[in-house]
Design goal:
Blueprint (H helix, E strand, L loop, with lengths): L1 H51 L3 H9 L4 H14 L1
């Protein structure tokens, strides 16, 4: 009788562990898919922000043709903000 109850308790514990494994696998899959979705969305946001902000090189190229002390004085705060 003791052996039978010991076997039953071991089987019950095994079932519990299998359910826990399935739960953890489900949570891992859910977290992984959420992470991929967040990663995809953040890379999309980075691309949008990169596209909307002018590159410093293009700004410098556009302002290089402007000459004169007044132009330099007027653009200095803008150039500093882009740096």
């Amino acid at each position: 009788m003791q052996l039978e109850s010991l076997i039953e308790s071991k089987i019950y514990r095994e079932d519990e562990l299998e359910r826990e494994i399935e739960t953890l696998r489900y949570e891992l899959a859910r977290a992984s898919s959420a992470s991929r979705a967040e990663s995809s969305s953040s890379s999309h946001r980075r691309r949008e922000s990169d596209d909307s902000a002018p590159a410093l090189g293009s700004f410098a190229a556009k302002t290089a043709s402007l000459q004169g002390p007044l132009t330099v004085a007027l653009l200095r705060p803008t150039i500093a903000a882009c740096s």
